[in-house]
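Look over both lines:
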Amino acid sequence: MTVFLDTNILIRHLTQDPPDMGRRATAFLAQSDSLHLADLILAETIYVLQSVYRVERPRLAALARVLVSSRNIVTDDPALLIRAIDVYEHYRLSFADAYLVALAEAVPESSIVSFDKGISKVETVNRIEPAT
């Protein structure tokens, strides 16, 4: 049976807020053999920790790396997520933009169409804008 993680389980585990749910989430994670972490759930977890709990970017990146590399957590493409986390941390893009960069890097001769000029800081991708 596949068990998918929801954002609230990760948030409760990482913040221990509220304490009862935090303990329950941590215990569940510790006793589970295989849990599926969807890319979208990791993105939402980063967003909530950053916007609600005000966790700093380097700490968020470290937490995300631990989640993705945990022995009992399965992701569809861990290398893609690790690259997205690296871009998120080092280029100060939103995690969604960092994920898009990681996707584009994996596809030869691809471009990202975006008005977000920050993406251009990543020299390994080509950002284009719609013509005026």
